[in-house]
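Handover notes (outgoing to incoming on-call)

Open items:
1. RNA helicase: sequence verified, structure written out, both below. Nothing else pending on this one.
2. Nothing else urgent.
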Amino acid sequence: MAVAALLRRGALSSSCRHDVYIRCVLSYYDLHPLVNSANLKFWRGNHNSGKFDFTDMTHPHLWYPNAREKKRNVFLHVGPTNSGKTHNALKRLEASSSGVYCGPLRLLAREVAERLNKANVPCNLTTGQEREEIEGAKHSSVTVEMADVTTEYQCAVIDEIQMVGCRTRGCSFTRALLGLCSDELHVCGDPAVVPIIQRLLEATDDVVTIQYYERLSPLVPLKSTLGPFSNIKAGDCMVTFSRREIYKLKRKIEMAGNHLCSVVYGSLPPETRTKQATMFNDEASDLNVLVASDAIGMGLNLNISRIIFSTLKKFDGICTRELTVPEIKQIAGRAGRYGSKFPVGEVTCLDAEDLPLLHSSLKSPSPIIERAGLFPTFDLLSVYSRLHGTDFLHPILERFLDKAKLSPDYFIADCEDMLKVAAIVDELPLALRDKYIFCQSPVDVRDDISTQGLTQFAENYAKKGIVRLKEIFTPGTLRVPTTHNQLQELESVHKVLELYVWLSYRFDDSFPDRELAASQKSICSMLIEEYLERSGWQQQGQRRVLRTPRKMRREYDALQLRGYFREIDARSK
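RNA helicase structure tokens:
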């Protein structure tokens, strides 16, 4: 029986492991219902035999036919932190008739949207959890995963392009680089990315121009360590790499002198990070020292005079290791921001043993990025699953990635977290596309509460086709944390609420309580901020009352409904 007939009837068994099926070889006519005609047109040019091997990912630029119809002018803006490269790219974006900014963080996307709107260039904001549409806007500011590769633009900007080499998110930057359909493409990042970008764009026939930048303000590595904590001064930023260590150092600094600390780290809600940074930058604020993780490396404008590394080692989810040269340079480069009240940045350590690595790293160029991340599209996985006669995503992913063929310039993105979610949703009666969406969601699989939230959402969706937040949410129990564990739990609740909002944009009417989730999310942020406020201490150990913005209080009063997850509530009783 013909493969096409088997596909139409869904008759291929998972036990069919003949080479023709494992290699996914089809004729053009068999492919027609499964792959759009635009892609087919370009694939014909590279598969002259009339057969396809769907695990062949050696020509990913052909996945984006709209971009391939253009001869794009690509401008690489490369240089160190605080060199003006992104600023110049954004000036071109402002001057364009239509355009898009693609950044690595929601904070950056929002910052650019606000900048363009302030410059009277109407600009939409699109992130995984946010949609803000401005009337008449022909510009958009998005997180890189949300980049639209079907719309034509006059100008596009990709920020922090060195993340093309990131083992988890690199595939999203590759997709934007190869797929954005724009006359001008401005790509900003570290010089270490230049060789790989040049190689990837050889296949696209784009015109590439490189502009190198130098740092706009000096960065001075100090020859001595901080010494006693009484040497902390206004404008300092202490960097460490765990939540517990951040609060330990915050308390130690506040007990040692006349300084109060803002804190910034990755699991804080983005809104809270922004407000903590704003208070640190405000000269009238009591919070004149920052304690932070490497989350400050990008996405926040901070008036830092001196970076102080408490350690040059971090746990990266797998093992404890030394910071890389790019990581040290990215963090240290946040000191002495051009145009701030600290025209010269300084950087040092707590431990004298770390000084040699710090100094050598700042003098060294970042290692060249050799390969870019890549991941199969849903269309490829869908065809592959039908060939194997199964809707189980976990085995399809494993088989496909095991058979995938790549050019030397690419690597398959790490999908360990995706496989963990796939194992959960494969237990449910869901369509393959629905499973894929759940696997793409921003769930923190290392967080039990976050994983529990995703499981409950997926189960309710599979059973009823609709997920009401109130079914797993009990009003009246959200409280200001009083312990570190309660703070961590509230941060996890915030993640689950963000997950609901994210899913509500992908499943339309099936997640109808987006506004409720957003309001609860705001309350979580405010309660976390209240905890941070209460943890401020004067030198004598007395709590100092900080000024809470009136806007925050008005928002808090407006959000009367308060809730918590039932299982957490039951656990606390």
